[in-house]
Design goal:
globular; single chain; 2 helices; YaeB-like fold; alpha+beta
């Protein structure tokens, strides 16, 4: 089985930095652990790109999004099956208002 290529958007990378920067103020080991668990969860998309739940949207979307949840974080992504590519759009803290999601 061919693995999907996982591509992180600049927004998702920035989200990861923001998460790390916020948590590292309290505990560097905790910040590192959370980042590693998010990365580990996202890695499953290489082998199982359609494993996430479809993201329901209020307004019509140009593309279909799916998501995985790891702890308090939602990993929002789209999958292009024809070219085996996963595009991670954003990492969203589920404790925040979902209307602030960047997608």
């Amino acid at each position: 089985m061919k693995k999907a290529q996982v591509i992180w958007s600049n927004t998702a990378l920035h989200d990861m930095e923001t998460i790390y920067d916020f948590i590292v103020e309290k505990s560097q080991p905790a910040a590192q652990r959370i980042i590693e668990t998010i990365l580990g969860r996202a890695k499953q998309l290489e082998s199982f790109p359609e494993s996430g739940v479809k993201q329901e949207t209020v307004k019509p979307a140009v593309k279909e999004y799916r998501y995985l949840v790891e702890g308090n974080y939602k990993i929002l992504y789209s999958y292009q099956a024809e070219i085996q590519r996963v595009y991670i759009a954003t990492i969203f803290d589920t404790r925040y208002n979902p209307e602030k999601m960047k997608v």
